[in-house]
Design a protein that fits this description.
Elements lengths: L12 H4 L3 H15 L6 E2 H15 L11 H4 L3 H12 L3 E5 L4 E5 L2 H14 L3 H20 L5 H33 L4 H20 L1 H4 L4 H17 L1 H14 L1
Antiparallel strand pairs: 1-3, 2-3
Helix pairs in contact: 2-3, 2-6, 3-5, 7-8, 7-11, 8-9
């Protein structure tokens, strides 16, 4: 398979490392600060971010198999940063005009870090964003004279993302009920139900179904608009004519 990005072979070593969880948490911390900077982070800033992370979590950094004695003697933030640079999750860029070293997150690593963030966060906020994006885009497409077909493609992309988020919600529900079936007595079953079901399923997974701005409020309007647009032949013809003039 030909990838668009040139991913170094060492990139996948992170997943085999004994410190995998530490490195992923470090990447999330660096990326969180990276988003507020235009182009890069200084090496000193990265070390400070990692130092703060280690102070909060303790890190628990283990020695890598191929790590030398000299490398193992470094501070935990320095070891983490050097390892992420070696793996290719971060890249060092020298600024010879100021004689400083800066750290950037390569494009291919950014994609993976975004996936880590999604796995570590609750999905209900995303579902609200997706359904609201579909709602707003279709409303504009139907009523704004400046509309174009690219808006429909935007709505389609958000619809697919929403569908995936709902699939994840159902998967989490199946996993919860699977845990219930593993319980051996009624006491364990009730504890899991009261704690797990209420906290994980009702309060989190069903959030988009039970709030005042829930999914079905948007769904009704969206379906109505789509039907109205399909049945309005004059409007459809105007859209086609406008698209032809653009092409």
């Amino acid at each position: 398979m030909q990838f668009y990005y040139e991913i170094p072979a060492s990139f996948w070593s992170l997943f085999r490392s004994v410190n995998r969880d530490v490195y992923i948490e470090a990447l999330l911390a660096v990326n969180d600060e990276y988003q507020y900077n235009n182009y890069f982070l200084s090496r000193e800033a990265c070390l400070q971010i990692l130092s703060d992370l280690c102070a909060r979590t303790g890190c628990g950094l283990k020695r890598e198999e191929e790590e030398t004695d000299e490398e193992a003697q470094e501070t935990a933030p320095g070891r983490i940063l050097n390892r992420l640079l070696k793996f290719g999750w971060l890249r060092r860029v020298e600024d010879y005009s100021t004689m400083t070293a800066n750290i950037v997150i390569p494009d291919y690593a950014s994609v993976m870090i975004e996936a880590f963030e999604r796995l570590a966060s609750e999905p209900e906020e995303d579902t609200q964003v997706y359904i609201q994006n579909v709602y707003a885009t279709l409303f504009s497409f139907k009523n704004d004279a400046r509309m174009n077909l690219s808006m429909l493609r935007t709505a389609l992309v958000n619809t697919r993302k929403l569908n995936r988020a709902l699939q994840d919600m159902l998967h989490n529900m199946d996993r919860f009920f699977g845990r219930l079936l593993e319980k051996r007595n009624y006491g364990e079953l009730l504890r899991e139900h009261l704690k797990g079901y209420v906290e994980e399923v009702v309060e989190r997974k069903y959030h988009i179904l039970k709030t005042s701005d829930n999914f079905y409020i948007y769904k009704t309007d969206i379906r109505r608009w789509l039907q109205e647009m399909r049945e309005d032949t004059a409007w459809v013809e105007r859209v086609r004519k406008k698209q032809r003039t653009r092409n």
